Amino acid sequence: MLGTILINLPAAIGIAVNPPAIITGIMLLTGPERRRLGGVYLAGWVLGLALLIGLGTALAGWQVRGHVADARPIVAWGELAIAVGLLLFGLRALVTRRDDTPEPPRWLRALGNLGKARAFGLGAFFAIVSLKNLALLAAMSGRIAVAELGGIQSAIVAAALIAIASAAILGPLLMTLSEERGSALLLDRWRELLLHHMGTLTGSMMLLVALSLARHALDTLR
What is the pTM of this model? Predict the structure, then answer.
């Protein structure tokens, strides 16, 4: 079980490093209802990830049931295809990045006054409507399915990976709840850094995750 978590750790970190989602979470934490909106936003994100990994693991488990040995090469080839896609995505993000652009994106300027329902929906949107997340969660689901774990063990693994994938959104919320002095300034600094280096962070992380997936896939196919 621990081995399955460690194998999927790079993919979970790849999901966690999502500058637009993190920036949105920080922006919600600067409003008048920051605690409620931050918590609801996190709930939407977690539920979205849980839905995808739950459906993915169930579908993959149904497909490989009783044929785990035969399914491992198929999963590995799928990982390799995902790695190639992420590699291209990462290179494109690095080549087309505009880290010096001071103007905030439209989605950030359009946040305005969000209610709890919209904050929840926004969290779920960032978790679900993302090709990167879909690809990484598909790879994670395939690995969990061929790990020959029981139902409870699979649920624990999925929960641990979701927690890791949510750490970058949970961290700012915990800082706000702690009400430590200087936390608001620190969060604002993080927001600025993420906003100005969004392309570099996204592209670099995708390259690292792609290399990790490719290495694991090639080791399985040997």
Answer: 0.82
